[in-house]
Amino acid sequence: MRDLTTGSIPGHLIRLAMPMALGMIFQTMYYLVDLWFVTRLGDAAVAGVSAAGNVQFIVMALTQVLGVGTMPLIANAVGRKDRDDANLVFNQSVVWAFVCAFITLVGGFGLAGAYMQAVGADDATRAAGLDYLYWYLPGLGLQFALVSMGAALRGTGIVKPTMLVQMVTVVMNIVLAPVLIAGWGTDRPLGVAGAGLASSIAIAVAVLLMLVYFVRLEHYVGFRRELLTARWDVLARMLRIGVPPGAEFALMFLFTAVIYFVIRDFGAAAQAGYGIGSRVMQSIFLPAMAVAFSAAPLAGQNMGAGKMERVRDTFRWAAIIGSGLMAVLTLMCQWRPEWFVQGFTEEAAVLAVATEFLRTISWNFVASGLIFTCSGLFQALGNTVPSLISSASRLVTFAGPALILAQRPGFRLRHVWVLSVVTMTLQAAFTLWLLNGEMKRRSTVADA
Q1: Distance between CA 359 and CA 332 in Å, rounded?
Q2: Contacting residues for 179 by C-beta, under 8 A, at least 6 apart
Q3: Which whole-number Å values give the CA distances from 19 to 147, 158, 200, 290, 338, in the listed order?
Q4: How far apart are the C-alpha atoms of 218 and 10, rounded to whole Å?
Q5: In this predicted model, what pLDDT tens digit does every residue of 75-102 receive, in sequence order?
Q6: Residue 317 CB partners (closer than 8 Å, separation 6+)
Q7: Minimal CA–CA distance to 77: which of 221, 211, 217?
Q8: pLDDT tens for residues 98-129?
Q9: Which terminus of the chain, N or C, has less C-beta within 10 A?
Q10: Taking the domains of the chain in order of start, what are their residue ranges?
């Protein structure tokens, strides 16, 4: 356990963010490595895997309920020096990780066909998406165990073990991807199914490594048999914080599904270009996400210790650092967006879509970084409802206009990207206003 209630706030942020960013980069490499090999299978394969990968947002919605419901409660307990409550929350998180994994597998296999039928540009795209998704679902189910253990460590101020595990498993995925997708060394290529299987195997190894760490090396929180039965009062505490961020990711699924729907008439090449561009964009977001994720346990421990001024300083420094990083990345995408995407495809039509997407969408990078930071602070403050309201506002401002634009003569892909930038900027302003109100409310309660 590491005490974050004293010492330099920017120092804590950087110390937490650097290994976390490295771990997130390795985690994202799962998708980029798979994508690189999948692009060799054609536009339909890329479009299918990208559209199927959107299902990840639904799984991430559930993992957010679990992870966000776990981390702040443990961080607050650490700030109060209440080790018993930290262990109770962790073990309850493990119980619900099993439940969520079961829901993911049953729901995924049951609904995958209907989803791909709705968003796939053609039959080949739908078939590729289903092949990938069926083999990736076991890995998605195992994600919950990783999230539970990783959130517990983050709440105690420890991030390096999770990063090291991610590094090991990504290397494994890099090795497995060409073997399973392209058939290197076996002459039995599995295509897009191999991409899903490679990720599932790598995630299974990650879970095993984290279990070994918890059993042998973790001492502040750990598995307690007597605590591994459902406690509804603890679940209520976790849901109160975790459900709104989970619902945010469900909204992200709907948001992305709307995009795939409105651009499907442009064909598989357009969906493939958007798929490549959006995956690269997610990777670019990692610096700001790492800072925001680091701000959450830092502010959470200080919230538990009643140090509101340090909570406010955490937001200021996280916003400054995250916005600075995202501003630099915006300039790079305006200058040479093709650098980020040209390695994934040699098809001019796909590359043109991905490049235009990245050049346009980069104007919302700073706004996205501020939204991530605000989300981390809402978690630390124990009230994530404003963050959900913020995300819902963007779905309202984007989905309706996008569907209307798609029906008008002269509709172009760029219209969707510009609309996304405008609505993200509005969301950032709205989120900052909500956070300012929540901080004032908490300060008034603390002073009273």
Answers
A1: 9
A2: 185, 186, 194, 198
A3: 16, 10, 23, 9, 28
A4: 26
A5: 888 888 888 988 999 999 999 999 989 9
A6: 9, 10, 13
A7: 221
A8: 998 998 889 888 887 787 777 666 778 788 88
A9: C
A10: 9-447
User: Which amino acid appears at position 387 of this protein?
Assistant: S
* CA 253 – CA 60 distance, rounded (Å): 9
**Which tokens is 220 given?**
């502040």
Longest dimension (CA), the chain: 71
The rounded distance, in Å, linking the Cα atoms of 394 and 210 is 36
Instruction: Report in angstroms the alpha-carbon separations of 441 from 113, 218, 238, 302, 432.
Output: 47, 37, 22, 16, 14
**Which pLDDT belongs to residue 428?**
93
DSSP state of 265: G
Rounded to two decimals, the pTM is 0.67
Encode 73-94 in three state secondary structure. HHHHHHHHCCHHHHHHHHHHHH
| Of 44, 190, 34, the residue nearest 126 (C-alpha) | 44
Tens digit of pLDDT for each residue in 24-59?
666 666 666 666 777 777 777 777 777 766 666 677
Rounded Cα distance, 398 and 303, in Å: 35
pLDDT at 194: 86
What letter represents residue 69's amino acid?
A: G
- Amino acid found at 12: H
Intra-chain end-to-end CA distance of the chain, in Å: 31
Q: Is the pLDDT of residue 447 over 60?
A: no
To the nearest whole percent, how much of the chain has pLDDT over 70?
93
Closest listed residue to residue 108, CA positions, set 200, 172, 208: 200
Structure-token match 């993911």, residue found: 104
Distance CA 346, CA 58 (A): 31
- Distance from C-alpha of 35 to C-alpha of 202, rounded to nearest angstrom: 16
Contact 207, 146 (CB under 8 A): yes
Mean pLDDT score across all residues of the chain: 83
pLDDT digits (tens, 9 = 90+) for 149-183: 988 888 888 877 877 887 788 788 888 888 888 88
In whole angstroms, what is the distance from residue 23 CA to residue 43 CA?
30
Tens-digit pLDDT profile for residues 387-434: 889 988 988 899 889 989 888 888 888 899 999 999 999 999 999 999
CB 276 within 8 A of CB 337: no
